[in-house]
Specification:
The protein is mainly beta. Helices cover 9% and strands 39% of the residues. It is built from 2 helices and 14 strands, in the order E-E-E-E-E-H-H-E-E-E-E-E-E-E-E-E. The protein has helices spanning 79-84, 88-100, and strands at 19-24, 33-38, 43-47, 53-58, 68-72, 104-108, 113-118, 123-129, 135-140, 146-151, 156-160, 167-171, 179-184, 191-195. The strands form 4 sheets. The chain has a 4-stranded antiparallel beta sheet with strand order 1-2-3-4, with no helix packed on it. The longest helix is centred in the middle third of the chain and has 13 residues, at 88-100.
Length: 201
């Protein structure tokens, strides 16, 4: 009689990484996205058109850290742009180019580096030092031109993100506790923070 073939299978328990950050893309983006940041540094991109549908993962670095995410999608010209483009037709064309661009995604964590990701190639596009140690929170202003970053040393720092830039701009006065949360007012004139000492400023 023919012998019975035996196949051995081994299964490992799947242990999902904790979700440290989750962020919707701005409403100006044609296709709605949600970015999900895992504790190991992985970033998942989900389509939010109707039901949430997983699309892809940006792999984190070995022993990486991710504490916060921020999207940006600039759709309005800056003052410098308005001076550069003289006619209304040129300004309309430049505004259309801005609107049609893909959104930008930033992440940061305990390694004190702010990273912009290439969503097509799934690799870092740009990276800058936070200048203040571990990054606990980030928020893009409503104009999508500045990124406010809260750091371990108790400072809020602003980064210029206009026209595909990621450049340090200025630093606010220090407080005696790490900044854990940050939010912009609707007119982008005020930043409110929450810190490890329990205070709102």
């Amino acid at each position: 009689s023919e012998g019975m073939q035996v196949h051995r299978c081994r299964f490992t328990d799947f242990v999902p990484q904790a979700i440290n950050a989750i962020e919707y893309a701005p409403a100006t983006v044609r296709r709605p996205y949600v970015a999900v940041g895992r504790a190991n540094g992985d970033i998942e991109i989900w389509s939010a058109k109707g039901n949430l549908v997983y699309e892809k993962t940006i792999p984190g670095v070995v022993n990486g850290s991710l504490e916060t995410l921020a999207w940006a999608h600039q759709t309005k010209l800056t003052k410098d742009d308005l001076e550069l483009f003289d006619t209304e037709k040129e300004r309309e064309k430049a505004t259309r180019r801005l609107t049609e661009r893909a959104p930008r995604l930033f992440s940061a964590g305990l390694n004190a580096v702010i990273v912009e990701w290439d969503l097509a190639k799934l690799v870092p596009k740009a990276a800058v030092d936070s200048y203040g140690g571990a990054v606990w929170c980030m928020s893009t202003n409503h104009a999508q031109t500045q990124l406010a970053v809260g750091t371990e040393d108790g400072h809020i720092r602003l980064f210029d993100i206009t026209d595909d830039k990621l450049v340090y701009q200025r630093c606010f006065d220090k407080i005696k506790a790490r900044i854990l949360s940050v939010a912009w007012s609707h007119d982008d004139q005020t930043i409110v923070t929450g810190s490890a000492d329990g205070a709102v400023r």
